[in-house]
TrEMBL record:
Residues 13-132 form the Saccharopine dehydrogenase NADP binding domain. Transmembrane segments: none annotated. InterPro entries: NAD(P)-bd_dom_sf, Saccharopine_DH-like_oxidrdct, Sacchrp_dh_NADP-bd. SUPFAM superfamilies: NAD(P)-binding Rossmann-fold domains (SSF51735). The lineage of its organism: Bacteria, Bacillati, Actinomycetota, Actinomycetes, Kitasatosporales. Pfam families: Sacchrp_dh_NADP. This is Saccharopine dehydrogenase NADP-binding domain-containing protein. PANTHER family: SACCHAROPINE DEHYDROGENASE-LIKE OXIDOREDUCTASE. It comes from the Bacteria.
Length: 392
């Protein structure tokens, strides 16, 4: 493997989509927390918006501006060649994202995004993982609430359990929050693409080497009352369990036989039933293009919960891990999951890839595999809580 990443590139980090809702929060986080001397730039399709953003940022004079458009592959290649790490918020990723992954894989730039779209992640694995391994680029998807608390939380839980034995971990997500136009658009797009998503998953399975001598899986659990957390547990069909299983496949610390199940935890049964019905209705409506357009128009790109709403939002992911005769209860928790904490997780992931001593990895890797302990430490210092609640 040759690592083409070099300090000869003008920027350590380029943030693409910096003028969007999460992009702006991420730029503000970087402006407030980047160490002195970090060379970083904001990038996007509108130079005017980028200049306005830069003027608002503390220390903005030091921040570069790059124009690039997802519809202009040459501009994305140039962007990738100017950066050691490219962080992009330009989604839905299945619509706008692939050319940038290709450009990063080809030029050896590390790439990270906020994609919670399994179809996109499977497609980039099949098309760009091999090239990224050749150039040394790390392609890290899902560096926001999807899937950092779950991926690093499962990793943290596993590390509290004995080594070399079969391990079982269940994750239970609770949150009180609202979402942005960008997230809503990505979710609707995803609900309308169930068939391509399943096809991309099959294609990935054909290309991915089989795990030999170990097992790691994330089967869908059944709805149940989970005594261990005192709530109704509903299987949550997000990308998170797939990401956790990929970390477990890559890292021997997860043991010879690892199983993860992912749930939403809801205290009251009527709320659980109502939630399932509402999700079913949304998925059904998303199949009809006019209804989908009508729904998308309710929440415009660039819009999202204001600071006051975000300040009242929170998340908690509780994990129950078992193995080798030991049981452990852990929790990852923080503030507004979708935006404030996502911007923090995303920016800290970019800083970790750019600055930390990390294990030698390349190709498509998860956050636990690429950055594990270093990123967990960063997030703890930044106020996201990782704790062991009880052991037995
Ligand atoms: N994983 C998670 O937990 C999580 C959390 C939050 C968001 N997300 C995802 O992050 C993404 C962004 O969300 P958001 O709320 O920030 O959305 P948003 O406000 O709509 O921002 C989208 C950004 O993409 C840019 N863009 C659109 N088309 C472009 C093109 N052709 N070329 C270059 N840039 C283009 C927009 O530029 P302009 O400013 O010029 O319009 C904007 O900067 C979504 O996919 C969302 O699902 C994930």
């Amino acid at each position: 493997m040759s690592r083409l990443n070099g300090t000869d590139r003008p920027y350590d980090i380029v943030l693409f989509g910096a003028t969007g809702f999460v992009g702006t929060l991420t730029a503000e986080y970087l402006a407030a927390h980047a160490p002195e001397g970090l060379r970083w730039a904001v990038a996007g399709r509108s130079e005017r918006k980028l200049e306005e953003l830069r003027e608002r940022l503390p220390g903005g004079d030091e921040v570069g501006v790059l124009r690039a458009d997802a519809a202009e592959p040459a501009s994305l290649r140039e962007l990738a060649e100017h950066a050691r790490v490219v962080a992009t918020t330009v989604g839905p990723y299945v619509t706008y994202g692939e050319e940038l992954v290709a450009a990063c894989a080809d030029s050896g730039a590390d790439y990270l995004d906020l994609s919670g779209e399994p179809e996109f992640v499977d497609l980039t694995y099949v098309r760009h993982d091999a090239r990224a391994r050749e150039t040394g680029a790390r392609l890290v998807h899902a560096c926001g609430f999807d899937s950092i608390p779950h991926d690093l939380g499962a990793y943290f839980t596993v590390r509290q359990l004995p080594e070399g034995v079969p391990l079982r971990v269940d994750g239970f997500v609770t949150a009180d929050a609202t979402f942005s136009g960008g997230t809503f658009a990505s979710a609707l797009n995803q609900f309308a693409r169930v068939r391509p998503m399943l096809a991309a998953e099959r294609d990935r399975r054909r290309h991915e080497p089989r795990l030999v001598g170990r097992r790691a899986a994330a089967p869908t659990g059944a709805p149940r009352f989970a005594k261990e957390v005192g709530a109704w547990a509903l299987p949550l069909p997000t990308i998170d369990p797939q990401i956790v299983a990929r970390s477990a496949k890559a890292l021997h610390r997860y043991g010879p036989d690892f199983r993860y199940r992912h749930y939403a935890a809801v205290r009251h049964l009527p709320v659980a039933v109502g939630g399932v019905a509402a999700m079913g209705a949304l998925v059904t409506v998303a199949q009809l293009p006019p209804a989908r357009r009508w729904l998308s128009d309710r929440l415009k790109p660039g819009e999202g919960p204001d600071a006051e709403k975000r300040a009242k939002s929170w998340f908690s992911v509780r994990f129950v891990g078992e193995g080798g005769g030991r049981r452990v209860f852990t929790e990852v928790s923080g503030g507004d999951p979708g935006y404030d904490e996502t911007a923090k997780m995303f920016a800290e992931s970019a800083l970790s890839l750019a600055l930390d001593e990390l294990p030698a990895t390349s190709g498509q890797v998860t956050t636990a595999v690429a950055m594990g302990d270093a990123l967990t430490d960063r997030l703890r210092r930044a106020g996201i809580r990782f704790r062991v609640a009880a052991t037995g």
